[in-house]
Write a structure and sequence with these properties.
Layout: E1 3-10, E2 14-15, E3 21-22, E4 25-33, E5 42-46, H1 55-58, E6 75-79, E7 94-95, E8 100-101, H2 111-125, E9 130-136, H3 138-149, E10 154-160, H4 168-182, H5 196-210, H6 213-219, H7 232-245, H8 250-262, H9 272-276, E11 282-288, H10 296-305, E12 310-314, H11 322-325, H12 327-353
Parallel strand pairs: 5-6, 5-9, 9-10, 10-11, 11-12
Antiparallel strand pairs: 1-4, 2-3, 4-6, 7-8
Function: Transfers an acetyl group from acetyl-CoA to L-homoserine, forming acetyl-L-homoserine.
Organism: Pontibacter oryzae
EC number: 2.3.1.31
């Protein structure tokens, strides 16, 4: 069953949380599967920091015939985030007011701005109910924010390796990466590849938060005992930096890492605990035991403060990236979550019949 790629155009001005205004925007989004007559089988996916709208590229083991999310049973939607560089309006887009690319002039975004754009797309598609909202990492932050903004829209939330408020630890990692971008002399320019060398270093720094000591020890250890230079681990860092710089840009990396830092579901809601008390969706919070960037206590905190929620721990040597790598464990956790819901509904029905 083929995937379909679309562009959503929002023609009106869009006011951001900062007070800045975008003169309209577009979102690139991907759909996959068959929408049932009741329009009750929609699954919406929110991507991570450097992801795109094609969820089958980076979560390929979850989507497809015979897999957890079968397109014969589900209708899946994923949009590239506002500020992105995979078809949505972002810093490389042309500002219709100046007829020049935004570059550094693109306004700062928060996750609330990004979610607000997603919701305009949802309304345009005519979805009054979403069966499941699924997101990991930055996408998990946005998903949690979205269920708070639109509590009556989402039936289920699957929140993976993410949090309710970005931590000082996470902000420090992001700022260190942005420091690397700032040190690139080209960052002062207004060109498409401004900051690209700094971006390579930023990605190398990020890898240390995405993976784990044991991941590097197993995959990048030298086979012998004679080498004194040109280590595998060193070349791996260079490779990862160059790989990202070949498909991304420093502007979007800067912008979305700042959006991640802004994440705080308790802002103007009386704190995270009060905000979580208003979650209506049935929630599954999933953590990765070796995650250094979004440690398990962050997901467990959410589970503790959302009534009736479920929690699952993934065992992985891959650190934060375990949420992308451990598809088997993720599949089992989500299947159990759905089965538990079905069992609960059956028991409630039997009680009503009595």
């Amino acid at each position: 069953m083929p995937k379909t790629h679309h562009i959503f155009h929002h023609q009106q001005e869009y006011k951001l949380e900062s007070g800045a205004v975008l003169p309209g925007f577009q979102l690139a989004y991907t759909t996959y599967g068959t929408l049932n007559p009741e329009r009750s089988n929609v699954l919406w996916v929110c991507h991570a920091l450097t992801g795109n709208s094609d969820f089958t590229e980076w979560w390929c083991d979850l989507f497809g015939e015979g897999k957890l999310f079968d397109p014969r049973e589900r209708f899946v939607v994923c949009a590239n985030a506002l500020g992105g560089c995979y078809g949505s309006t972002g810093p490389l887009s042309v500002n219709p007011r100046t007829l020049q690319p935004y570059f550094h002039a693109f306004p700062q975004l928060t996750n609330r701005d990004i979610v607000g754009a997603f919701d305009l797309l949802r309304e345009d598609l005519g979805f009054t109910q979403i069966h499941t909202l699924l997101g990991g990492s930055l996408g998990g932050q946005q998903a949690l924010e979205w269920v708070l903004q639109k509590p009556d829209v989402f039936q289920n939330l699957v929140h993976v390796a993410s949090n309710g408020r970005h931590s000082p630890w996470g902000i420090a990692f992001n700022e260190t990466q942005r420091m690397a971008i700032r040190q690139d002399p080209s960052w002062a320019d207004s060109t498409e590849d401004a900051g690209s060398e700094g971006l390579k270093t930023a990605r190398a720094i990020a890898m240390l938060s995405y993976r784990h000591y044991h991941t590097y020890n197993e995959a990048q250890q030298e086979p012998g005992h004679s080498i004194t230079d040109n280590f595998r681990a060193a070349s791996y860092q260079v490779y990862q930096g160059e790989k990202l710089a070949g498909r991304f840009n420093a502007y979007t990396y800067w912008l979305l890492s700042k959006a991640m830092d802004s994440h705080n579901i308790g802002r103007d809601r009386g704190g995270p605990e009060r905000a979580l008390a208003h979650v209506k969706a049935r929630c599954l919070f999933i953590g990765v035991d070796s995650d250094l960037l979004f440690p398990v206590e962050e997901q467990y905190f959410l589970h503790q403060h959302v009534a009736g929620s479920s929690f699952h721990l993934i065992n992985s040597k891959y650190g934060h990236d375990g949420f992308l790598v451990e598809a088997g464990q993720l599949t089992e956790a989500i299947q159990n979550f759905y089965q538990q819901k079905q069992l609960t509904e059956e028991l409630n029905y039997e009680e009503q019949e009595r």
